[in-house]
Amino acid sequence: MSQIGQRLRELRGGKTLAEFADQMDVSRSAWSNYEAGRRLPSHETIKRIAQRLGISPDSLLPGTELKRTIVPTESHNWTASIPALWLYNRLGPLMVGLSEQNRLLWWAANFPSLTEDLENKIHDYSTVRNINTIDAAYAVCEDLEKRTDRELLAYVSAVADWPD
């Protein structure tokens, strides 16, 4: 989430936090939490920010160019990208000894298998809780956030080969 926060800070530019939050129709405290990486903006907030800034919603999220080059958008449930990007943000720094480029290459190579597994989890959440897939994707993120780094590494290692 800190990379998303960094991107949002870049977009704010020289405006004060209060000015920009008001322009985006978001509370000052919510925007502060987004920039600090403590919260992710909702899907609706991302759409509104992108629309007001005249940019693509994809450009707000790190790693979206990987989604476009690795997984065809017409056959991919994009909501599975939400927890996959969350995992990238949380576990990327644990990939010690790898350059940022090699981290991105690993995530790009493993993105399809991760999103496939996460898509199944999202489906299970939406079915059991009777909620839409976007809310289910955020529920999966909330569940992942409760887990330790060790548990998350075990999960990712079960789905993809975690680099040494």
From TrEMBL:
<dbReference type="InterPro" id="IPR010982">
    <property type="entry name" value="Lambda_DNA-bd_dom_sf"/>
</dbReference>
<dbReference type="Pfam" id="PF13560">
    <property type="entry name" value="HTH_31"/>
</dbReference>
<feature type="domain" description="HTH cro/C1-type">
    <location>
        <begin position="6"/>
        <end position="60"/>
    </location>
</feature>
<protein>
    <submittedName>
        <fullName>XRE family transcriptional regulator</fullName>
    </submittedName>
</protein>
<dbReference type="InterPro" id="IPR001387">
    <property type="entry name" value="Cro/C1-type_HTH"/>
</dbReference>
